[in-house]
Design goal:
The complex is a heterodimer of chains A (238) and B (286).
Chain A: E1 3-14, E2 17-28, E3 32-36, H1 43-51, E4 56-63, E5 66-67, H2 73-79, E6 81-84, H3 96-103, H4 117-123, H5 125-129, H6 140-152, E7 158-162, H7 170-185, E8 189-193, H8 197-203, E9 206-211, E10 214-219, H9 221-225, H10 228-235
Parallel strand pairs in A: 3-8, 3-9, 6-7, 7-8
Antiparallel strand pairs in A: 1-2, 1-4, 4-5, 9-10
Chain B: H1 2-32, H2 39-55, H3 60-81, H4 90-112, E1 128-131, E2 134-137, H5 138-160, H6 162-172, H7 174-179, H8 184-210, H9 216-231, H10 236-256, H11 261-275
Helix pairs in contact in B: 1-5, 1-6, 1-8, 1-9, 1-10, 2-3, 2-4, 2-8, 2-9, 3-8, 5-6, 9-10, 10-11
The chains are: A alpha/beta (238), B mainly alpha (286).
Chain lengths: 238, 286
């Protein structure tokens, strides 16, 4: 399979602090790649840098072979990167309907499927019920679904998911996880950051572990799941 | 009774003018976090340009439109060529817009002199109307209606169109708006043009009431700032409520207790800020 997303020698700084140092990794097309690691390992920083929200000082990001470096976030979105950010970052003063209306963009490439409002209401029936509600007044789970739907209607070629299960009730986590599985079955390439390890292991095809901004391990989820030393050392799981 | 009715109508007229000035200021501040201190000067420039256009033989309405367009264009140029370079740097932005305000004020003084001038109301709106026992200039009634219509149009633009939803999204979280493909650069320029054009239009419409004179900008800017502080930055509803509140407080303060007019103007602001620092309708802007 060709690579959907390739990061090579990526360095990202917060001010003078280097949060990601020389990251090399790739995400295969149509697969879920899980980016794991402790808090502060550089996972969110990496996703923000791919989406263009943080500047990179060194290294390259390529989307299906096209360089993204130095472009504005809106240009990166139009090229096909969809971001579901940490903390959801929905627009409190917009309704569900408005979120999807302003984000919707027809796919630039001949795509098998188009994610439009109707498709989102099928994927997340709750959003259909909440169509006219202000997003700021919705529950955390509904906001998370909206954040995913908002990224999907930009019809991305790669979806960046930053902690989609964070702070959600068990039942909602199950709903969100089911939706992600469905996107995976539909062939969407996904880069997932998730602290809920069982969930990440269940969804992922490949895992990459970061520590202090560097890759310390990569491999298949079932290998990671059976390596308790590795999990204890880099993920704090005992 | 007559006194209360006619002063209330005066308050509504002033409130309407303040809304035209403050809504643009507030939208710009909410979207770009730029406190455009040139806004009062652009209001005054609008009034002078309107006057010049009328003197050049244009009708009042054509003059108002021309002036709004020219001031909006100037605002767009300001944003594209100057403010853009200072994105995210509050103090340099404040100094820049203040400097622009001085330049505009001096240019007006140079071009049109220091004497107050009257911008004639359009002939079809001259004369007076009777409201109960009160006799009230017809033009002021027009100002009340026109500013309410502009408020309604702005509200429809912001709440009922896709472009308005994009502006609100960018006010909420500009980085996230960019990340879903909204071009903040285009949006910033468009909102700056719109906001400054409204100030210019407000200047022409206010001209026949306030008259046109060199320190008009310094009289209007503090009132606009008060409106925004009271109502909350970035909120159209806040600008609306704040503008009419200040319109009433200022008008009645000046007639009832002229010595304390400014105290009465600033007291409610102090009260609101101590209870709701982000203003009546404002959210905490990051």
């Amino acid at each position: 399979m060709p690579d959907a997303l390739t990061l090579s020698d990526l360095h990202v700084y917060h001010g003078d602090i280097c949060a990601v140092r020389g990251l090399d990794m790739s995400c295969a097309e149509g697969a879920v790649t899980a980016l794991l690691g402790r808090n502060g390992a550089g996972k969110t920083t990496t996703l923000s840098a791919i989406a263009g929200l943080l500047g990179t000082r060194q290294g390259h990001v390529e989307l299906f072979g096209k360089a993204l470096g130095g472009r504005k976030p809106e240009a990166i979105c139009k090229l096909g990167v969809g971001l579901v950010p940490q903390g959801r970052r929905i627009f409190p003063s917009l309704t569900v309907q408005e979120h999807l209306a302003i984000a919707f963009r027809r796919p630039r490439h001949a795509a098998e499927r188009v994610y439009d409002v109707a498709a989102m209401e099928t994927l997340f029936p709750r959003l259909k019920e909440r169509r006219r509600q202000l997003a700021g007044s919705m529950s955390g789970g509904e906001q998370q679904m909206l954040a995913i739907a908002r990224a999907l209607v930009t019809n991305p070629r790669v979806l960046l998911l930053d902690e989609p299960a964070e702070g959600l009730a068990q039942q909602i986590v199950a709903e969100v996880a089911e939706a992600i599985s469905e996107l995976k079955r539909a062939g969407l390439s996904i880069l997932l950051v998730e602290h809920n390890l069982p969930l990440a292991l269940r969804l992922a095809d490949t895992c990459v572990i970061l520590s202090s901004g560097e890759v310390v391990w990569r491999g298949a989820p079932h290998i990671l799941a059976n390596d308790s030393d590795l999990m204890a050392q880099h993920l704090g799981v005992h | 009774m007559t006194f209360w009715v006619s002063q209330s109508l005066n308050s509504l007229a002033l409130g309407g003018l303040l809304f035209m000035l403050a809504s643009g200021f507030s939208l710009i501040f909410g979207l770009m976090r730029v406190a455009n201190l040139a806004h009062g000067a652009l209001f005054m420039l609008g009034a002078y340009l309107g006057l010049a256009a009328v003197k050049a033989g244009l009708g009042f309405w054509a003059a108002a439109l021309t002036s709004a367009l020219l001031v909006g264009l100037l605002g767009g140029v300001m944003e594209r060529t100057l403010l853009r370079r200072l994105a995210g740097r509050t103090l340099p932005q404040v100094l820049l817009t203040l400097g622009i305000a001085f330049i505009i004020a001096d240019a007006c003084l140079m071009l049109w002199g220091g004497d107050p001038m009257r911008l004639p109301a359009p002939p079809e709106l001259s004369g007076a109307v009777r409201i109960g026992d009160a006799v009230f200039p017809r033009y002021r009634v027009f100002v009340i209606v026109a500013s309410a219509a502009i408020a309604l149009a702005l509200w429809l633009l912001m709440e009922r169109t896709r472009a308005g939803a994009m502006i609100r999204a960018a006010v909420d979280d500009v980085g996230m708006a960019q990340a879903i493909g909204i071009s903040s650069s285009t949006l910033f320029t468009a909102v700056f043009c719109l906001g400054t054009a409204l100030a210019g239009l407000g200047g022409v419409i206010g001209g026949p009431i306030l008259s046109v004179y060199p320190s008009l900008d310094q009289d209007m800017l503090p009132l606009a700032l008060l409106v925004v502080i009271l109502g909350g930055a970035g909120s159209l509803a806040g600008a609306f409520v704040g503008a009419y509140a200040i319109g009433f407080i200022y008008t009645f303060g000046q007639v009832l207790v002229p010595d304390l007019a400014y105290v009465i103007l600033f007291l409610p602001m102090v009260a609101v800020l101590s209870v709701a620092p982000q203003g009546l309708f404002g959210r905490r802007l990051g």
